[in-house]
């Protein structure tokens, strides 16, 4: 029985095994474990530490603040960050030895102008077709020139060139080949300008699993390291185990008569006498309200349905005629070994993706780590 009323149990052994399995998919590439957004809701510091134990050569985060948090957690290895609005404090990450990304000439200029005491380690990002960050077309040519100038002036060390795929979780999508071709041409243009960084990288989890041609020198794995499939429809042989099990202890159990309306708005009414259990997690913890009346939870080796709407702090499940008591544990999702749903099941109930199911968790959930070194 868990000690906390709302608890995420994080299996670090599963996480390390997932990372090893992903490294085996790309045996000649370095591996970057992506720990942005508090390690997809799993807690950044312990996941960063465990990723290094599993041999992850790199850690990746989105923002500068996240990169600095990785350093504060004691990590001294290679870290890349990639998302900064104008006016960002580049001096701090540069002085912390973090590799920063330049997605435009303007951004490279900001990096070079930062009042840092060390030479910036910069990776240049090309937009190969996601239309998010990175330099596109003619802008890439300008960024190549600026990066070459900065390198030859000794103003920056260009440590990588990279891009991001739009449709890697749909392996047959023509955008994959198209983006890879644009990437290869972009790398060639950079090389022709005299810049040949050691690290060319394009793959996220999905491409790491199924698209070896995109592996290049490094693969960036996020969701798959947490044991979640990038898309439920993807097929591959790599074995991944969900890292997080989310549980709650029933705060109330009661028998209600037929006709009892449940939760705000009475969006579900009991059609027979039944036993309801009150689960002390709600949208304050990041439980999607759109899963109302749709999701299931694991209970006593099977599954029972949620009834009525998800509230801020709690939701109700229908235990039928099962023997249940206050304090009994329900499992919202986990690896599925005891019949409980997967995060992917919650995603489909909530009309979202499993990435969002785990990443949005927070609030009053207590995280417990298993398998710590
Ligand atoms: C989030 C992110 C990743 C990881 O993507 P997954 O699909 O979770 O593996 C990789 N690269 C970049 C640039 C990202 O933003």
Written overview of the protein:
The chain is α/β, with parallel strands linked by helices and 373 residues long. It folds into 2 domains: 12-225, TIM Barrel; 244-370, Lyase, Ornithine Decarboxylase, Chain A, domain 1 (Beta Barrel). Helices cover 29% and strands 24% of the residues. Strand 15 (296-299) and strand 16 (302-307) form a beta hairpin. Helix 1 crosses helix 3. It is elongated and about 80 Å long. Pyridoxal-5'-phosphate binds next to strand 9.
Low-confidence stretches: none
What is the residue-mean pLDDT, rounded to a whole number?
97
Alpha carbon gap, first and last residue: 23 Å
Give the domain tally: 2
Roughly how much helix do the residues carry, as a percent range?
A: 25-40%
Looking at the structure, the CATH topology of the largest domain is: TIM Barrel
State which percent range the strand residues make up: 15-25%
Strands side by side in the biggest sheet:
2-3-4-5-6-7-8-9
Are any ligands bound, and if so which? pyridoxal-5'-phosphate
Number of strands: 19
Order of helices and strands: EHEHHEHEHEHEHEHEHEEEEEEEEEEHHE
Instruction: Give the C-alpha Rg.
Output: 23 Å
How many helices does DSSP assign? Answer: 11
Q: CATH H level of the largest domain: which superfamily?
A: Alanine racemase
Structural class by sheet pairing and helices: alpha/beta
Give a quick account of the main beta sheet: strands, pairing sense, barrel closure.
8 strands, parallel, barrel
Tell the overall outline. elongated
- Which CATH top level class of the largest domain fits? Alpha Beta
Give the second-level CATH assignment, the architecture of the largest domain: Alpha-Beta Barrel
């Amino acid at each position: 029985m868990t000690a906390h009323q709302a608890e995420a149990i994080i299996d670090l052994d599963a996480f390390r095994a997932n990372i090893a399995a992903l490294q085996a998919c790309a045996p000649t590439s370095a591996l970057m474990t992506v720990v942005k957004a508090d390690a997809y809701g799993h807690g950044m510091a312990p996941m960063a530490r465990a990723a290094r134990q599993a041999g992850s050569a790199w850690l990746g985060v989105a923002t500068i603040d996240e990169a600095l948090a990785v350093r504060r957690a004691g990590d001294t290895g290679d870290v890349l960050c990639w998302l900064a609005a104008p006016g960002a404090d580049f001096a701090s990450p540069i002085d912390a030895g973090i590799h920063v990304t330049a997605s435009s000439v303007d951004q490279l200029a900001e990096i070079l102008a930062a009042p840092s005491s060390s030479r910036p380690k910069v990776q240049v990002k090309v937009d190969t077709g996601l239309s998010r960050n990175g330099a596109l077309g003619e802008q890439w040519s300008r960024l190549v020139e600026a990066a070459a100038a900065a390198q030859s002036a000794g103003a920056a060390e260009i440590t990588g060139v990279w891009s991001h795929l739009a449709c890697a979780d749909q392996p047959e999508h023509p955008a994959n080949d198209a983006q890879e071709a644009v990437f290869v041409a972009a790398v060639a243009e950079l090389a022709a300008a005299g810049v040949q960084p050691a690290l060319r990288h394009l793959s996220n989890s999905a491409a790491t699993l199924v698209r070896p041609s995109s592996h290049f020198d490094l693969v960036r794995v996020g969701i798959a390291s947490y044991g979640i499939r990038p898309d439920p429809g993807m097929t591959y042989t790599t074995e991944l185990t969900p890292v997080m099990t989310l549980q709650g202890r029933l705060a109330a159990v009661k028998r209600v008569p037929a006709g009892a309306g449940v939760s705000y708005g009475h969006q579900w009414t009991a059609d027979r006498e039944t036993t309801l259990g009150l689960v002390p997690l709600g949208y304050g913890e990041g439980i999607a309200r759109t899963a109302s009346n749709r999701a299931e939870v694991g209970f006593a080796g099977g599954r029972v349905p949620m009834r009525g709407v998800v509230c801020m702090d709690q939701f109700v499940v229908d235990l039928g005629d099962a023997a249940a008591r206050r304090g009994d544990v329900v499992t919202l999702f986990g690896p599925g070994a005891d019949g409980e749903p997967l995060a992917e099941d919650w995603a489909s109930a909530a009309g979202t993706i499993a990435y969002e199911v785990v990443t949005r968790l927070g609030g009053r959930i207590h995280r417990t780590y298993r398998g710590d070194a």
